[in-house]
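Hi all, long-time lurker, first post. I run a small reading group and we've been trying to get comfortable going from sequence to structure in the token notation. Rather than ask abstract questions, I figured I'd post a concrete chain and ask someone more experienced to write out its structure so we can walk through it together at our next meeting. Sequence below, copied exactly:
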Amino acid sequence: MSLSASQNRAGLALIAPASVLALLFLFAPLSSIFVLAFTDYQLGDRSLSFVGFENFEALADDPTFWKSLSNTLIYSAVVVPGSMLLGLVSALLIDAGTSLRSFYRTAFFLPVMASLLAMAVVWEFMLHPSFGIVNATMKALGFAPHNWLKDGGIALYVLAVIGIWQSFGFNMVLFMAGLSAIPRDLYDAAEMDGTPNAWARFKLITWPLLAPVTVFVAVTSVIRSFQVFDTVHALTQGGPNKATEVLLYTIYAEGFEFFRSGHAAAITIVFILLVVGVSLLRFVSLKKNGASA
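-- Answer (accepted) --
Happy to help. Here is the structure in token form:
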């Protein structure tokens, strides 16, 4: 049955506000970035010139860009599996428990709700080389204190630990949603068939049925890890010696400290392509899972 003209107009009127907002706050900024990436525009200038692919060619020879890209990938390689594993274990333990489930859900989810910039300040005090609680604990255990955020060899991994702490609660909630969708009859049937071991039931039932949720959590975690900025800006400012500089911080520095907007826009396009690539991987994975099912 075809819709009447009045129904079509009503539908268009309902989607018009969302369409206008998407145009203003999504498509217009993205279009501006793509245009700026092909210019020599510097923040504050009244004129610009189109330079073609010069900004992208400059990226190929820019050691800062490659350093920030590698730091971003290393950070993601640590945070994603760490936050996923901790989130899954937390979800399994809470799902198996019978008491204080609401308390644990709230406690583990608090870092997600809290302002990461405010929490970064707390972490800065905790990691302080002189009076931080981390070094105080190490001294009490007989270990030498360490300047965690000024050591180029470990500073990025310290930020990754903070990233795991901040994001695993979100993954826990997603895994708990997946666990709640698994029929309990399957576990009863497995136990009756001679599979009383919890680990065996996990491999036989839980893990296969959590596959779609796991794919979603993995892709979401990768995208969130690519977006790390607050902790870097608050704790290390990309140092020491660019050991913790990541893509978003490089974009910020190029655009708002060195005023090279065209160069920053080119890096932004690379960042967008990375995020889109990860999203496409999720789409392909879910499509394969649907086809196999």
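A couple of things your group might point at:
The mean pLDDT is 86.
The CA atoms of residues 199 and 206 lie 10 Å apart.
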